[in-house]
Write a structure and sequence with these properties.
Elements (H helix, E strand, L loop, with lengths): L1 H16 L5 H14 L2 H10 L1 H9 L8 H18 L8 H20 L9 H21 L3 H12 L3 H12 L31 H21 L5 H12 L6 H8 L3 H22 L9
């Protein structure tokens, strides 16, 4: 640990000691890197701006992540800025690189701050990184209740009040394992949080029962289709048994009859199927719709 701390201190000192670049020199190095992929030019450009990376990383040191990792991610953003920088626009490289450095660090924090992924949209990211500051300022200035503060923050950031409440809850408490016991201090392996999660899916025996019943009903239906004449069978097949049902109008055009006549024939055919099914299986609850 002491070795790592010593290395970081030496790295920071070297970054702070790196000479500043004049505007013309900065643009010349950026141009050499863009045109010729001159690694020496890239190294000088990056070294001169590492103090900027360290300064931006320091703003995010309160998120519980290693300062070394934040600086490393910021360096990645710096190199990304160098790859995308357009010297012809005559903008200072530090101005352009600041956005990329901050974005790289923020993305790293969002990926690693919690095992629960959050803040995927730009508005959610803004909420994540500004909630504590806005909440503290509003509560100090106005002394308002939580709900009023949430509304003001939601309006300022451009998210819903519920989003603010959920993010505040996440930032106020650490992640909890689903395998953790429900009661504090319970080490006996009793009820865990995962045991109380609700699963809306049907139980295995219900799935099997529905499958068996479905196959039985299909078999019964096939056994009574013979009571229909050709036109009735054609209409029922097209309207009730096909994956994509035909409309009354399209069937009427093919059969040369009105759509109202198709509906009448369909209803009559369904009645015949119900009666035939009840005759053969009087104890079964059968619905043909």
């Amino acid at each position: 640990m002491s070795n790592a701390l010593g290395l970081r201190r030496r790295f920071v000192k070297a970054a702070m000691d790196a000479p500043f670049l004049e505007r013309d020199e900065e643009l010349a190095l950026a141009q050499r890197w863009k045109d010729a992929k001159d690694q020496v030019a890239l190294h000088r450009l990056a070294s001169a701006h590492m103090r900027l990376v360290i300064a931006i990383a320091a703003r995010f040191r309160h998120y519980g992540l290693s300062m070394s990792d934040l600086i490393q991610e910021g360096h990645i953003g710096l190199l990304e800025a160098a790859a995308r920088f357009e010297p012809d626009r005559e903008v200072r490289f530090s101005t352009y690189a600041t956005w990329w450095i901050r974005a790289s660090i923020q993305d790293y924090i969002l990926r690693n701050w919690s095992i629960v992924r959050g803040g995927t949209s730009s508005a959610q990211k803004a909420l994540f990184f500004n909630l504590r500051r806005l909440r503290a300022r509003l509560a100090r200035d106005n002394g308002e209740a939580n709900e009023t503060v949430y509304k003001q923050i939601a309006l300022a950031v451009g998210v819903s009040v519920n989003d603010v409440a959920v993010m505040d809850s996440r930032l106020s408490a650490p992640d909890t394992s689903l395998n953790a016991p429900m009661s504090e201090g319970d080490e006996s392996g009793g009820s865990t949080r995962v045991a109380f999660l609700v699963d809306d899916k049907p139980l295995p025996d219900e799935v099997v029962e529905d499958s068996i019943d479905g196959e039985r009903r299909i078999s019964w239906l096939r056994g009574v289709l013979g009571v229909l004449n050709d036109r009735e069978l054609r209409i029922v097949s097209a309207r009730r048994l096909a994956e994509e049902a035909d409309t009354l109008e399209s069937l009427g055009q093919r059969l040369g009859i009105s759509k109202e006549r198709v509906r009448q024939i369909e209803n009559r055919a369904l009645d015949k199927l119900r009666r035939a099914l009840l005759d053969r299986h009087p104890d079964a609850m059968i619905a043909v719709a």
